[in-house]
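Try this one yourself first.
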């Protein structure tokens, strides 16, 4: 039987995400050697489909329909190929997945992912972190629009 590693937040197992949150910042830890991976994950994705509608005058028009669909966050183990190989080789039971912060906007998500990655110097310590690149864009005015419901995470470098 393959054992799975649950997501946790403040020590509690997470099985659902409040729809007001766009996603979360997380850390995945290899319990055998202590290596970590910091990342972000959206809780839903926007899917666009085309629907043909008939107008009152009888003409047909194509209309874009946008819907939110759940992401694969429950089974997600990061975008790092090295981390995914280790999870496959060592087993999911040897990794912990912890949600550090829920975010209300995409800008907030990008900002806090980059903040924690820079604060830990994860790119400079490949023996301690799986992260191999940092990339983000966020605007101050988008970030300041968010109401911060979760407390900031304190990171010890």
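Now uncover the answer:
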């Amino acid at each position: 039987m393959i054992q799975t590693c649950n997501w946790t937040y403040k020590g509690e197992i997470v099985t659902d995400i409040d729809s007001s949150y766009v996603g979360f910042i997380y850390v995945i830890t290899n319990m055998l050697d202590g290596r970590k991976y910091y990342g972000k994950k959206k809780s839903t994705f926007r899917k666009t489909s085309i629907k043909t509608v008939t107008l009152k005058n009888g003409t047909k028009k194509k209309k874009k329909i946008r819907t939110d669909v759940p992401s694969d966050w429950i089974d997600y183990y990061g975008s790092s190929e090295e981390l995914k190989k280790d999870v496959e080789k060592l087993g999911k039971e040897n990794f912990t997945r912890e949600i550090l912060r829920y975010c209300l906007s995409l800008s907030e998500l990008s900002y806090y992912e980059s903040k924690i990655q820079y604060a830990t110097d994860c790119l400079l310590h490949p023996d301690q972190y799986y992260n191999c690149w940092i990339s983000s864009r966020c605007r101050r005015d988008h970030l300041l629009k968010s109401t911060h419901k979760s407390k900031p995470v304190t990171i010890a470098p």
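Discussion: DSSP finds three helices and seven strands in the chain. The first helix runs from residue 81 to 90.
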